[in-house]
Predict the 3D structure of the following.
Amino acid sequence: MKASNAVIAAILAVVAAIVLLAGYHGGYSSVSNVASTDCTLNTTVNVGASYSTSIPPSGFTVSVTIETPSPDMNATRAYINVVTRADEAINLVKGLGLNYTGSFSMNPQYGQYGVFEGYKVAYSMTIIVPLNQTLLGELLTDLVSVGVDSVSIGSYINPELTQEAKLYALKMAVLNAYSKVNAIASALNETIASVKVVNEQYYIYQPAPYLYELAVLAPPTSGLPSPPQISPGPGSATASVTMIAVLCKG
């Protein structure tokens, strides 16, 4: 019985030694794996990039002003002078099936030493016209006949197209920045570990409207040239980004 206990004890000792050695070897293997993927030596890079894309015009914006030619001491008379012409302009725009926005204003006018000179009344209207030169010409002719005081014409850039162009420009700017980071990593024989920060900015450009002389827009007569053919210019969306990334030597 004592011999049997001695044998069992010896076997248990051998098993314990094997387990100890196995555990030590497993721990060494784990440390080795961590060391092979540890990026303790790294480089931080900061790059910038931008991208611009064109936004085609969807039509014209026609901005119209109707106002009192000079301050009027009689507020009612000044108002009637403007509102009569404004009603005619609104009716002709509606008759052409065009969308518009408009607003009235009435303000007292003061001259030197704060002397009251009368009231100035104005009506401002912005009309959206499709890309149709015939329709645009008809509108301008009617507006001149109503007796508007100024007309400016610009490009109408659809807000939905602007948003699409903005997102596309951002995507391309980010890809350009990442390409720069990748080129730097390749030159240094490193790899991209992560992108830490991306900051973006946008700039939307719309062509400025051009103020036309009313005589130029009037119906052609023997003494006046035909109204000009007006071509709306495109807008653009530009996105700029800065990117901070970490490169790994490991």
